[in-house]
């Protein structure tokens, strides 16, 4: 929207300039000689500039889309790795708690006589 606010007044001034400058003027460049009105020439240069700017913007947007797609793919891969690591962690903690509980069953008679208190590890669950 901001670009439109900048472009529309410029185009309006350019079109008014084109209509008020219709007299042909000799255009002498390095090897080209022709007659053209200054208004039409400035309008054509302005249109060429807008087209060039639009192409530059399009190329930039396409490059950003490519980078975004690559980043999204990386995020998906990292989320998959994170889910795999969480599953491995959960399975390892469940195995360690089952191993601890089986070890505690054999040691309960010796522990009850000494009246020692052993805290069991907390099992982290996935939210």
Describe the structure.
The chain has three helices and two strands; from the N terminus they run H-E-E-H-H. The chain is mainly alpha-helical and 127 residues long. The protein has a domain at 2-55 and 66-93. It has a two-stranded antiparallel ribbon with strand order 1-2. Helix 1 runs antiparallel to helix 2. The protein is rod-shaped and about 105 Å long. The model is unreliable at 109-116 (pLDDT under 50).
Task: Provide a short characterization of the protein structure.
With 127 residues, this protein is mainly alpha-helical.
SSE topology:
Elements: H1 2-20, E1 24-28, E2 33-37, H2 38-106, H3 108-114
Antiparallel strand pairs: 1-2
> Which structural category fits the helices and strands?
mainly alpha
Query: Would you list the SSEs in sequence order as H and E?
Result: HEEHH
Shape: rod-shaped
Overall pLDDT score? 81
Structural Rg: 38 Å
**Largest sheet report:** 2 strands, antiparallel
Give the oligomer, counting copies of the same chain as homo and different chains as hetero.
Answer: single chain
Instruction: Work out the number of β strands.
Output: 2
Helix percentage range: over 70%
Biggest sheet, spatial arrangement of strands: 1-2
Tally of helical runs? 3
User: What is the straight-line distance between the termini?
Assistant: 43 Å
Low-confidence sequence ranges? 109-116
Strand content: 5-15%
């Amino acid at each position: 929207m901001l670009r439109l606010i900048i472009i529309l007044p410029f185009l309006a001034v350019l079109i008014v300039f084109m209509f008020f400058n219709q007299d042909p003027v000799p255009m002498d460049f390095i090897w080209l000689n022709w007659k053209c009105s200054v208004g039409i020439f400035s309008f054509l240069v302005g249109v060429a500039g807008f087209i060039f700017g639009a192409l530059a913007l399009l190329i930039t947007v396409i490059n950003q889309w490519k980078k975004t797609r690559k980043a999204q793919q990386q995020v998906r891969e990292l989320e998959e790795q994170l889910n795999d690591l969480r599953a491995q962690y959960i399975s390892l903690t469940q195995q360690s708690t089952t191993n601890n509980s089986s070890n505690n069953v054999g040691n309960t008679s010796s522990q009850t006589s000494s009246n020692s208190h052993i805290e069991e590890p907390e099992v982290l669950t996935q939210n």
